[in-house]
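Input/output pair, single chain:
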Amino acid sequence: MSTIREQIILPCEPETAFHAWLDEKAHSAMVNADAHISPEIGGKFRLWGRTITGVTTGIDKESLSIDQDWHFDWPGWSKEEPSHVELSFDSHKNGCVLSFVQTSVPPKHLKELREGWEDNYWKPMKEYFAKVE
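Output:
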């Protein structure tokens, strides 16, 4: 299995990005997609219809970190082995740095997933927070 590590600078306060990730209305707006999120540990989420489903396994409001298990409804992606996503939101001179780690990525999906994060999350999030801050 493969791992993706990213650091993304967002033009907002860390608390703003942290709360938007867990809020279904804000999450939907920041990635221009349908999101259903139950914002607590053990809470389930689904994105883009049911293409992505998962559960939030950790939320730390003091350190502004979130842990989630993600499942992508893609051919060859085991339903029994989710991908684990860790996010942390920290102050940066230009707003916020989002540190992102995704483990247990099937190697055959690595390139597609990296591009998907950039196109469907990082770029839209930068645009969204530039407007709301």
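The helical segments are 14-22, 24-31, 110-132. The chain has one domain: 2-132.
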